[in-house]
Design brief:
Elements lengths: L5 E5 L2 H13 L4 E5 L12 E5 L7 H17 L4 E5 L12 H12 L4 E4 L7 E4 L2 E4 L2 E2 L18 H6 L5 E5 L1 H4 L3 H13 L2 E6 L4 H10 L5 E4 L8 H6 L20 E4 L4 H11 L4 E3 L2 H5 L4 H13 L5 E4 L8
Parallel strand pairs: 1-3, 1-4, 2-3, 4-11, 5-10, 5-11, 9-10, 12-14, 13-14
Antiparallel strand pairs: 6-7, 7-8
């Protein structure tokens, strides 16, 4: 059985799915698991993505779960690893990005990695260490009002430094623009300065491809799903990626479908609103769930009722309510 090349640890399910999609687009046959698979499980793929639910749990628990995922991925033979988090760097001053990155570096016995949550396709860019969401800074994007991870500081060097005892540096855009060799030289300089984690500027997909090439020898890379854009080519250049033309092939699955949405982001609310304008949906009320009401049973009954007519339904947990 061929061993996996790239092992990925994501701090939530939707982000893991984004990352898996990015890798498939790059020609890597990718398998995603929800949680760490049982010991002894062997999966044949080019890339493996373990989806955790560790973004807002206690930092020590996030570290433990991430290390368990790393151990399993190493057992699959992975050559390089990604720690994937949100493109808006969702975190608090206690973590969990910094503590998990530190722990993974320790486990891999490595001394440097980058942090780059950039995703230009969705308007997430970094310039001189500051994260933009579209045309506004992170702290003006609505993320400053997030109930669990309010992002009130757009400067990711400062944000990450508050989460870690490691020294945090910056790979600025003027270095990125000079190409992969310049980035590698900057990394060498940062390491001499004692920097262990460095925010990497990027404003376009082209920058992410350049970063991917520059980071080919790093054991660990951290960032959003966009950081995966430039990695498949590194394996292809070493003649390790041989199934690129079949990466998106999936077995046909017959049956009906249900759409699930759990995010509370503005984008998800807009998508839910568009769906609700013309198609059936069921809103999960978290307060009713906390009261012990049979919300799951009600959602299943709703779905079964519509599926009799071959209708696809949406089950969601965002704040949007359909207008009647």
């Amino acid at each position: 059985m061929a061993q996996a090349l790239l092992g990925c640890i994501a701090d939530d399910f939707t982000g893991a799915t984004d990352l898996a999609n990015m890798l498939v687009r790059g020609g890597m046959r990718t398998v995603q698991s929800i949680g760490v698979p049982p010991v002894g499980t062997q999966i044949e793929a080019d890339a493996l993505v373990v989806a955790l639910k560790s973004r807002t749990i206690a930092a020590e628990d996030a570290v433990q779960q991430s290390l368990e995922a790393l151990q399993w991925l190493r057992g699959q033979g992975c050559r390089q690893f990604i720690f994937k988090y949100c493109s808006t760097f969702d975190s608090t001053d206690k973590g969990n990005i910094g503590p998990v990155a530190d722990a993974l570096l320790d486990a891999l016995k490595d001394d440097f990695t980058i942090a780059c949550p950039v995703f230009p396709e969705n308007g997430r860019t970094i310039f001189r260490g500051n994260l933009f969401v579209g045309d506004v800074l992170l702290n003006e994007s609505g993320m400053e009002n997030h109930p669990l991870t309010p992002m009130t500081d757009p400067n990711l060097v400062r944000v990450l430094q508050r989460q870690t005892k490691s020294k945090v540096g910056l790979i600025r855009y003027d270095t990125i623009a000079k190409g992969a060799d310049a980035i590698r030289a900057r990394i060498d300089d940062l390491k001499k300065e004692g920097v262990r984690l460095a925010i990497a500027d990027a404003v376009s997909d082209a920058d992410l491809y350049t970063l991917g090439e520059a980071c080919r020898d790093l054991a660990l890379i951290t960032g959003g799903s966009g950081i995966a854009l430039g990695l498949p080519q590194n394996f292809r250049a070493e003649n390790l990626l041989t199934h690129a033309e079949h990466a998106a092939d999936l077995p046909k699955i017959d049956g009906l479908s249900v759409v699930l949405a759990g995010s509370a982001s503005k984008a998800t609310n807009a998508q839910v609103a568009e769906w609700n304008a013309s198609r059936p949906s069921f809103r999960v009320d978290p307060l009713a769930l906390s009261r012990g009401e049979p919300v799951v049973e009600q959602a299943l009954e709703f779905a079964r009722g519509h599926m009799k007519n071959d209708e696809t339904v949406l089950i969601y947990a965002t704040s949007h309510r359909p207008t009647k």
